[in-house]
Amino acid sequence: MSFYKLILVFAALLMVQACGFRPLYGGGGAASPEFARIKVEPIADRVGQLLHNRLLTALNPKGLHQKPLYVLSTKLNETSASLAVKKSAFATRANLTVKANFHLVRTLDGKTLYSGESSITVSYNILDSEFATLVATKDARFRAVREVSHGISTQLGVYFSSVQVPKN
């Protein structure tokens, strides 16, 4: 039985290789070196600051400073909506939606190379304790920022892996 599983795994690997699969980051992918050349513009508000810092880390984890060839500007929108309501008309659960619209602009000529959107909706509990609700809301924001940052970096990675990047 395990011999058949081994053959199945081997066949699946061959099919993935044959379809043109290649890693998005690392492994010779075009995305990683270009990420270090992106200047992330500051984003308004505290949530924007969290997203800015997360993007800096995601796009350039080694912190290597290179001359920026691109500028990433981002507009952030955050909304909250009550979800579950008790008979007493008090909400017990809420959704926090964070939506980021971003533009990648080439610094050389100011041309917008890529525009996209990344959004996420996360839920949190509204509790009797005001402090506990505040902590739950703060945690929801951190989770949302993490996912939005991942969405932006993934979209940029796909963009850079699909275009011919000039060698400088």
One letter per element, helices H and strands E, the order comes to: HHEHEEEH
According to CATH, the fold-level topology of the domain at 23-78 and 97-119 and 145-162 is Double Stranded RNA Binding Domain
Amino-to-carboxy terminus distance:
53 Å
Largest sheet: 4 strands, mixed
The average pLDDT value, as a whole number, equals 84
CATH homologous group name of the domain at 23-78 and 97-119 and 145-162 = Lipoprotein like domain
Q: Any low-confidence stretches, pLDDT <50, length ≥5?
A: none
Helix content: 40-55%
- The secondary structure category is alpha+beta
Radius of gyration, in Å, reads 21 Å
How many helices does DSSP assign?
A: 4
Beta-strand proportion: 25-35%
**If strands are numbered along the chain, what order do they take across the biggest sheet?**
1-2-3-4
User: What's the overall geometry?
Assistant: flat
Q: Could you tell me the number of beta strands?
A: 4
- The top-level CATH class of the domain at 23-78 and 97-119 and 145-162 is Alpha Beta
Q: How does CATH name the architecture of the domain at 23-78 and 97-119 and 145-162?
A: 2-Layer Sandwich
Structure notes:
The protein has a four-stranded mixed β-sheet with strand order 1-2-3-4. The chain has a domain at 23-78 and 97-119 and 145-162: Lipoprotein like domain (Double Stranded RNA Binding Domain). The radius of gyration is 21 Å and the shape is flat. The protein has four helices and four strands. Helix 3 links the parallel strand 1 (38-40) and strand 2 (70-85). The chain has helices spanning 2-18, 31-35, 45-59, 130-162; strands at residues 38-40, 70-85, 91-106, 112-125. Helix 3 (45-59) crosses helix 4. Helices cover 42% and strands 29% of the residues. The chain is an alpha+beta fold.
